[in-house]
Design brief:
About 40% of the residues lie in helices and about 20% in strands. The chain is of the alpha+beta class and about 140 residues long. It has one domain: Nucleoside diphosphate kinase-like domain (Alpha-Beta Plaits, 2-Layer Sandwich), CATH 3.30.70.141. A four-stranded antiparallel sheet has the order 2-3-1-4. It binds adenosine-5'-triphosphate (ATP) and magnesium ion (MG). Its main location: cytoplasm.
Length: about 140
């Protein structure tokens, strides 16, 4: 069965939204396979976000992601990768659709990086690579 990596980012953990985000994933019918609270190291984040290296938000993104603990979750289910992406909503929390995690719980805080509460792998290849990084 398909698996994906979900991260509750530091803003989600700091705001006490971990339970709410887990609730939405579980209520949708997906299974939690593994879960850990991680203070991410620079090296892990650089590998996780390698595709964004050189972009203007890259450094602020890494600083944000190492600003506090994240909750890493291995989630399983049929078509879970696209299902979790749909639950999360669009990247920009200001315009993410209401009903989604980002649309209901996030907004712009006037920072250089979009603090948008969650991450979800975007393809089977990415999911395999990311799960290996966060759960080795
Ligand atoms: P994620 O990969 O975290 O699930 P995503 O796939 O919706 O989110 P990406 O394009 O992969 O978005 O960007 C990774 C992260 O970088 C975003 O979640 C956001 O935190 C930040 N980000 C992306 N684009 C911008 C931007 N234009 N300005 C500021 N921050 C951004
Ligand atoms: Mg992405």
């Amino acid at each position: 069965v398909e698996e994906t990596l979900v991260l509750v980012k530091p803003d989600g953990v700091a705001r006490g939204l971990t339970g709410e985000i887990l609730r939405r994933i579980e209520s949708k019918g997906y299974s939690l396979v593994d879960l850990r609270l991680v203070q991410a190291e620079r090296d892990l984040l650089e590998r996780h976000y390698a595709e964004h290296e050189g972009k203007p938000f890259y450094e602020p993104l890494l600083e944000f992601m190492e600003s506090g603990p994240v909750v890493a979750i291995r989630v399983a289910g049929e078509r879970v990768i696209e299902g979790v992406r749909a639950l999360m909503g669009a990247t920009d929390p200001t315009t993410a659709a209401p009903g989604t995690i980002r649309g209901d719980l996030g907004r712009d805080w006037g920072l250089k990086v979009q603090q948008n509460l969650v991450h979800g792998s975007d393809s089977p290849e990415t999911a395999a690579r990311e799960l290996d990084l966060w759960f080795r």
